[in-house]
From TrEMBL:
HAMAP family documented for this protein: PurF
GO aspect biological process, one term: 'de novo' IMP biosynthetic process
Described purpose of this protein according to its UniProt entry: Catalyzes the formation of phosphoribosylamine from phosphoribosylpyrophosphate (PRPP) and glutamine.
Name of this chain's protein: Amidophosphoribosyltransferase
UniProt domain Glutamine amidotransferase type-2: residue ranges: 34-253
Cofactor(s) required, per the database record: Mg(2+)
Active-site residues annotated for this sequence: C34
InterPro entries named among the record's database cross-references: GATase_2_dom, Ntn_hydrolases_N, PRTase-like, PRTase_dom, PurF, PurF_N
């Protein structure tokens, strides 16, 4: 989620210097911030949830949490860091007894990585406890938060997920699910929620289906999670996608489905296919790996130039580069080797380290590129900082020509649904022409996948402006929901700007 204090930077921000270095290493990375998992009725609920979160680690690497229920008490473990840092230990899993559990992995922006923001968030309501794990972002979350605070609510986090807890608590309806739906009626934006009470596991998606949520089954027990790869890791069976606007409830009586919203044309986020989802996941019936290969093949149709080798920027550009190579007939080579073991806090970001930062993560494979004309394939371009360094690295390693291709259209607009993108002024394509971008990154040529080409690679005839099939607002500016917070002029609340916690 984007958070009210995401730009706050004080001496109390934990690990902020290391995050600055990481931003420098990942200057062209589009980052999304959450993955969710929940299971009902299994004796090993917490252990299975931990395994599922391992499979979703790519969706969030700042923090992880699990809440379980053992029939009488809720148990919570929430920690900063990777899933394996905490949840691979037997003693931690033993502290999470019960047959019901929900889990969350999170990717936070600078200034928001504090323990109180780590999900699942939990609150004790008059009907009992409620734990909520949220993937997405509420585009009216700040507005609702301001109204709740004015009416006396006390916020303990800077996460918009806490707003949902307060809305459920504020509802005057008698049954929990009615109160839960009341809360959903008040929020807008993108959300895939997995929630846990002392009796129920509840999943819900926003009416446009912007964020993914799937239903699986293991040993007769239902599972709700962000991606099918989390089902594969535990040997669970994929059942179906949760539909846009659907609320699904599991309890001792079985399954109950609610559809409280008028039907709307689905607009799932196109970035799930471009970047977020793992290549081995199936998203809305499409193989992510095959879609990314199709993006690369379409890119070859649109902007090929004579070269000797196709080189992916690992790991994000690999499937598209495979598709480009297969369509063009140009050999695929691993001209860049990625170091997967670059840490966040191992060294302070001195200027000398900043200059060599990209080489800590990517190294040129000179044997594959020296003396050759190469095409570099990556999934997207945000600020251009890393792309510039990689092009220079290729030239330093002896590449004769370096052509850069992006397997997505130019990113021209910010996101308000949970993607960590800068405002428009920080987006290279929004502030520079194609030629200016090419010159800035130092490539011999530069080209992006066209918007219509992206749709054709998805099996559509092209983009229909009157009825776009995907949330493609980062490329087109056509946002699929109201953006209430963006119309407000009041300053954003920063309740926790002076609070630091040990983790």
């Amino acid at each position: 989620m984007r958070h009210p204090d995401q730009d706050a930077h004080t001496d109390l921000d934990p690990g902020s210097a290391a995050l600055e270095l990481q931003d420098d290493l990942e200057g062209d990375t589009v980052r999304e911030e959450c993955g969710v998992f929940g299971i009902y009725g299994h004796p090993d609920a917490a252990a299975i949830t931990a395994l599922g979160l391992h499979a979703l680690q790519h969706r969030g690497q700042e923090a992880a949490g699990i809440v379980s229920y053992d029939g009488s008490r809720f148990h919570s473990e929430r920690r900063l860091g990777l899933v394996g840092d905490t949840f691979s230990r037997r003693e931690v899993i033993d502290r999470l007894p019960g047959t019901m559990a929900v889990g969350h992995v999170r990717y936070a922006t600078t200034g928001a990585t504090i323990l109180r923001n780590v999900q699942p968030l939990f609150a004790e309501l008059n009907a009992g406890g409620l734990a909520v794990a949220h993937n997405g972002n509420l585009s009216n979350g700040l507005t609702l938060r301001r109204e709740l605070v004015k009416s006396g609510a006390m916020m303990q986090s800077t996460s918009d997920t806490e707003v949902i807890l307060h809305l459920v608590a504020r509802s005057r309806r008698s049954r929990f699910i009615e109160r839960y739906i009341d809360a959903l009626r008040e929020i807008e934006g993108a959300y895939a929620l997995v929630s846990l009470t002392n009796k129920k596991l509840v999943g819900s998606r926003d009416p446009r289906g912007i964020r993914p949520l799937v239903l699986g089954e293991l040993d007769g027990c239902p599972i709700l999670t962000s991606e099918t790869c989390a089902l594969d890791i535990i040997g669970a069976r994929f059942v179906r996608d949760i539909e846009p606007g659907e609320v699904i409830v599991f309890d001792e009586n079985g399954q109950d489905i609610h559809k409280p919203f008028p039907p709307m044309a689905p607009r799932p986020c196109i970035f799930e296919y471009i970047y977020f989802a793992r290549p081995d996941s199936i998203v809305h019936g499409r193989s992510v790996y095959e879609v990314r290969k199709a993006f690369g093949a379409q890119l070859a149709r649109e902007s090929h130039v004579p070269v000797d080798v196709v080189v992916p920027v690992p790991d994000s550009g690999v499937p598209a580069a495979v598709g480009y190579s297969q369509h063009s007939g140009v050999p695929f080579e691993l001209g860049i080797i990625r170091n997967h073991y670059v840490g966040r806090t191992f060294i302070q970001p001195t200027q000398a380290i900043r200059e060599s930062g990209v080489r800590m993560k990517h190294s040129a494979n000179r044997a594959a590129i020296e003396g050759k004309r190469i095409i570099l394939i990556d999934d997207s371009l945000v600020r251009g900082t890393t792309s510039k360094k990689i092009v220079r690295m290729m030239r330093d390693a002896g590449a004769k020509e370096v052509h850069f291709r992006l397997a997505s259209p130019p990113i021209l607009y910010p996101d308000y649904y949970g993607i960590d993108l800068p405002d428009r002024g920080g987006l290279l394509a929004a502030t520079h022409s194609l030629e200016e971008m090419r010159e800035l990154i130092g490539a011999d040529s530069l080209a992006f996948l066209s918007i219509d080409g992206m749709y054709r690679a998805m099996g559509e005839p092209g983009r229909d402006p009157a009825n776009p099939k995907f949330a493609d607002h980062c490329f087109t500016g056509a946002y699929p929901t109201h953006l209430t917070d963006q119309t407000q002029t009041e300053p954003q609340p920063r309740q926790l700007s002076l609070l630091a916690e040990a983790s």
